[in-house]
Amino acid sequence: MPKKNLTAAEKRYYAAVVELGCCICKMPPEIHHRTGAGMGMRAHNSDVMGLCPDHHRLGMNGKLAIHKGVKTWEAEHGTQDYWIQATQDRIF
């Protein structure tokens, strides 16, 4: 979920990301920050995409979860950069 102390603009952006649905299956999403920001740091708040719980962290119902293997997930679905840019393009 979003971190505390989001700006009003960031809250509006997250709401727009959620409204789009999971970028893979269109189910209700969670906010996914780009992984690999380095040294345990979270990516910038605009570097997000919507992923349903299964595509995000659970990996159930035959779906591959990004947090269970980024390289495998990206090989199957495309890069995080692609989906983050696609999300931004749809919103802006």
List the helices and strands and how they pair.
Layout: H1 8-20, E1 30-33, E2 48-51, H2 53-58, H3 70-77, H4 80-91
Antiparallel strand pairs: 1-2
Features:
single chain; 92 residues; mainly alpha; two-stranded antiparallel ribbon; globular
Structure overview:
There is one protein chain. This protein has 92 residues and is mainly alpha-helical. Helix content is 42%, strand content 9%. It has a two-stranded antiparallel sheet.
Q: What's the pLDDT, averaged over the residues?
A: 89
Structural class: mainly alpha
Count of runs of 4 or more consecutive helical residues: 4
Helix percentage range: 40-55%
Give start-end ranges of low-pLDDT stretches: none
Beta content comes to 5-15%
Extended strand count: 2
Shape: globular
Q: Biggest sheet, strands in spatial order?
A: 1-2
Describe the sheet with the most strands: 2 strands, antiparallel
H-E string: HEEHHH
Short description:
The protein is mainly alpha-helical. Helix content is 42%, strand content 9%. It is built from four helices and two strands, in the order αββααα.
